[in-house]
Amino acid sequence: KIPFEKIEPAPKYRGFHTLDWKKCVGCNFCGQICPARAIEMTWLEVDGKMEKRPHPKVDYGRCTFCQFCVDVCPTGALGFTEAYYLSTGGSEEDLELFNWVPIHPDKVRELNEKFGDYRFPVEKIEKKADGTYVYHLRDGSTIEFKILGYGIRPPKKPTPTKPTAKTAEKKETKPAEKKENVKQAEKKEGA
Ligand code: SF4
Ligand code: SF4
């Protein structure tokens, strides 16, 4: 009778992932072993600085909770918690919750201890117009970052292109001049 009753999971039940962003070296072993292709390496910007390595984003629409990714992680960055319960009202916004970059195990543990109901640690994922993601955790705290790109290679920074001679010329042509040019061309055609 969700959400009025809770079912105690077995010890070490394979629930949601946790991730220590500092320990993660972006090797993508987790992504390579994942049989469900549920992991996408993701470049994050935290406090205005791009993380040196990409981190896994886990899609719970695909994940089978086999935890192969956790077993293969060479640094112990990826882990899992017994928390297993995620249900929503089903709005488009709620679906954001099912595809996340996992958060630090200590925080997940703290929330599990505080609420003791094995629910997903994030209540809402807000996506701002400037690309900022805000994780609203169950205790009212937030985690903010930007997603700069996906894949193993770092995202390319957009480089400002120099205007070529032609484009510069075009820019300088005023609308009135343009009309005059068209008229002259028409006259020539008539002749
Ligand atoms: S979570 Fe582990 S396996 Fe995955 S990229 Fe980070 S260090 Fe590598
Ligand atoms: S638990 Fe299994 S299915 Fe889910 S992300 Fe990890 S390797 Fe993929």
What does this structure look like?
The chain is α+β, with helices and mostly antiparallel strands and 191 residues long. The protein has one domain: 2-Layer Sandwich (Alpha-Beta Plaits), CATH 3.30.70. It contains 5 helices and 9 strands. Strands 2, 3, 4, 6, 7, 8 and 9 form a 7-stranded antiparallel β-sheet that branches. The model has no long low-confidence stretch (mean pLDDT 87). The protein binds iron/sulfur cluster (2 copies). One iron/sulfur cluster binds at residues 24-30, 56, 73, 75, 77-78.
Total separate domains: 1
Q: Give the end-to-end Cα distance, rounded to a whole number of Å.
A: 87 Å
Class derived from helix and strand content? alpha+beta
**Strand portion, in percent?**
15-25%
Q: What does the largest sheet look like?
A: 7 strands, antiparallel
Ligands in the structure? iron/sulfur cluster
Element order: H for helix, E for strand? EHEEEHEEHEEEHH
Helix segment tally: 5
CATH C-level label: Alpha Beta
Poorly predicted runs are none
CATH topology: Alpha-Beta Plaits
Rg over CA atoms, rounded to whole Å, is 25 Å
Shape: globular
The total beta strand count reads 9
Q: State the share of residues found in helices, binned by percent.
A: 10-25%
Mean pLDDT rating: 87
CATH architecture: 2-Layer Sandwich
